[in-house]
Amino acid sequence: MEITEKVAYLKGLAEGLALDTEKSKEGKLIAAIIDVLDDMALELADMQDEQCDLEDGLDAVSEDLADVESLIYEELDDEEDEEDEDCYETTCPTCEEAIYFDDSILEEGEIICPNCGEKLEFDLSDLANESKSEDED
Ligand SMILES: [Zn+2]
To answer: Ligand 1 centre and the CA of 85: distance in Å?
Structure first.
């Protein structure tokens, strides 16, 4: 039973006693107690409503936060994926074997073919121009 319902029940009991709330001191006291209980019950009901609103608000914030978190993690995952993809493949012109290398090799500008020992050189200015024209697209 809700507190408001209990107070309503008490009110009914008091009315059933047909107390004289004007002249009887006991009647006045009981009427005053029930009045306070009534106010408290209503205030409590209001607080419970507000708490529900707060919980709804928190839920909404929590959901938004979860969205932000998943966005950040997706972005981090993307960055990690990109790091994984920073791997290049070329074919050695001498032995025609595929050679795999990463950014650090590219920055050095040359690689020794692990198959035949041929030194391959990259033209970095060509690569820079390529990526620039891609950006313009
Ligand atoms: Zn080779």
So the answer is: 23
Q: Residue 99 to residues 42, 83, 95, 118: CA-CA distances in angstroms?
A: 78, 18, 10, 11
Measured CA to CA, the distance from residue 132 to residue 137 in angstroms comes to 9
Task: Output the CA 98–ligand 1 centroid distance in Å.
Answer: 8
Q: Is 58 helix (H, G, I), strand (E, B) or coil?
A: helix
Q: Any residues with CB less than 8 A from the CB of 38 and at least 6 apart, and which? A: 7, 11
Quote the pTM value: 0.44
Q: Which two tokens stand for residue 64?
A: 């938004």
State in Å: Cα 49 to ligand 1 middle. Answer: 76
Pairwise CA distance, residues 126 & 90, whole Å? 15
Domain boundaries, the chain: 3-83, 86-136
Mean pLDDT of the chain: 84
b vs e for 44-62, b when ≥16 Cβ sit within 10 Å of the residue's Cβ? eeeeeeeeeeeeeeeeeee
The string of pLDDT tens digits covering residues 22-52 is: 888 988 999 899 999 999 999 999 999 999 9
